[in-house]
Design a protein that fits this description.
Layout lengths: L10 H7 L7 E5 L2 E5 L11 E4 L8 H12 L8 E6 L8 H10 L3 E11 L14 E5 L7 H14 L7 H24 L3 E8 L2 E10 L4 E9 L8 H12 L8 E6 L5 H7 L3 E10 L6
Parallel strand pairs: 3-4, 9-10
Antiparallel strand pairs: 1-2, 2-3, 4-11, 5-10, 5-11, 6-7, 7-8, 8-9
C-alpha cells in the first residue's frame, strides 16, 4: 500500500520547485503551493499545485475545481498535482484518492527525492577517465565558444528523454527550446550553473546545478551520451560539481530527483545521497481539461 507522510516543511516538494522559471508566479493558497507559468507549452513542472495535505477522495472534485479557477484566468490548460509519500504514516485513503484522480483524467508519475547534507559533500572530485575534462561553463552571454558549449550541453540534455533521437524529437519540438530558455534565465540571475564533460574535446555528459538562495541546491538532469556511459564520466562530473559547493555560503543540503527504479540511484547512493521522500505526481495528459 502506498503511504503518505504529512510533512510540515514539504522539503521534497520544495526541491522540485527550485528549478521553476523566474517568471513563474508562486502562491501559497491554504495548504497548497501553486506555481503558474502561463507561457509553458506543456503540463510539466511549470504549472503545478503542490499539496502539503493530500485531499480525501471525496474532496478531490472540489480541489480540482479550485485549481481550475486559479489556472484558467492566466491561460493554463494543463494541471500537475503533487504530494509527498514515504514509508512513514499509512494513509488508508490513498487507494480511494487514486481512483478519484484517475476518474478525473489524471495519471500517476512517481519521483524520489534524495538529499546530501552540506557537511557530507566530497572534498575533491573523482578524477575523470583518460581524455575526459570537466568544466563549469561560463555564463550564457559569453563569447562564441561559450555559446557553443551551452548549445552542446542542451543537445546532450535531450538524452534525458530517451536514447533514440526519435524518442526525444517530439519532446524537443514541444518544449525543449522553452526548457533551455528556463536554464538560461536562471543562470542570468545566478541561480543555475551548467557543467560539461568532454572526451577528446567532444561533449559527452552534462548536468545543471540549481540554487534556491535559501540553503538548498539541486542537481538536475545528469545526462551522459549513450555511447560514453559506464566509464565513470558521470561520477567525475557530479563529484566536481558537488565539491565546488563546499565553498558555497549558507548551504544546508543538496537534492537530486530520480525515478524510484532508476539505475542512477545506485551511483547517487555511493556518494552519500539518501532518500528524503517519494513524491506522487499526477499529470493530466494532452486532450484532457
Amino acid at each position: 500500500m502506498t503511504t503518505v507522510s504529512r510533512r510540515d516543511d514539504g522539503a521534497a516538494l520544495r526541491a522540485l520547485r527550485v528549478g521553476v522559471h523566474p517568471s513563474a508566479l508562486v502562491q501559497h493558497v491554504g495548504t497548497d503551493i501553486v506555481v503558474r507559468t502561463p507561457e509553458r507549452p506543456d503540463h510539466r513542472d511549470g504549472n503545478v499545485v503542490d499539496l502539503l495535505a493530500p485531499p480525501d477522495a471525496a474532496e478531490v472534485p472540489a480541489r480540482l475545481e479550485g485549481v481550475r479557477r486559479l489556472m484558467e484566468p492566466v491561460g493554463v490548460a494543463h494541471v500537475h498535482l503533487r504530494y509527498e509519500v514515504s514509508d512513514g504514516i499509512v494513509d488508508a485513503g490513498e487507494s480511494a484518492r487514486e481512483v478519484a484522480l484517475r476518474a478525473a483524467g489524471f495519471e500517476p508519475d512517481d519521483l524520489r527525492v534524495l538529499v546530501l547534507d552540506a557537511d557530507a559533500l566530497p572534498v575533491d572530485a573523482v578524477p575523470p577517465p583518460g581524455g575526459v575534462t570537466v568544466e563549469r561553463l561560463q555564463g550564457p552571454d559569453g563569447d562564441v565558444i561559450a555559446g557553443r558549449r551551452w548549445y552542446a550541453a542542451a543537445v546532450l540534455d535531450r538524452y534525458a528523454h530517451g536514447d533514440d533521437v526519435e524518442q526525444w524529437r517530439a519532446w524537443d519540438a514541444a518544449w525543449g527550446a522553452w526548457d533551455r530558455e528556463r536554464i538560461t534565465a536562471l543562470a542570468r540571475i545566478g541561480r543555475a550553473e551548467v557543467w560539461l564533460a568532454s572526451r577528446h574535446g567532444m561533449p559527452v555528459a552534462t548536468l545543471t546545478l540549481l540554487d534556491d538562495g535559501a540553503g538548498l541546491a539541486v542537481v538536475e538532469d545528469v545526462v551522459t551520451h549513450p555511447a560514453h556511459r559506464r566509464r565513470g564520466i558521470a561520477r567525475a562530473l557530479l563529484t566536481a560539481a558537488l565539491a565546488s559547493l563546499r565553498t558555497a555560503a549558507s548551504l544546508d543540503r543538496v537534492a537530486l530527483v530520480v525515478r524510484p527504479a532508476s539505475p542512477a540511484a545506485t551511483l547517487y547512493g555511493t556518494l552519500g545521497f539518501r532518500p528524503l521522500a517519494d513524491v506522487r505526481a499526477w499529470l493530466r495528459p494532452d486532450g484532457h481539461r
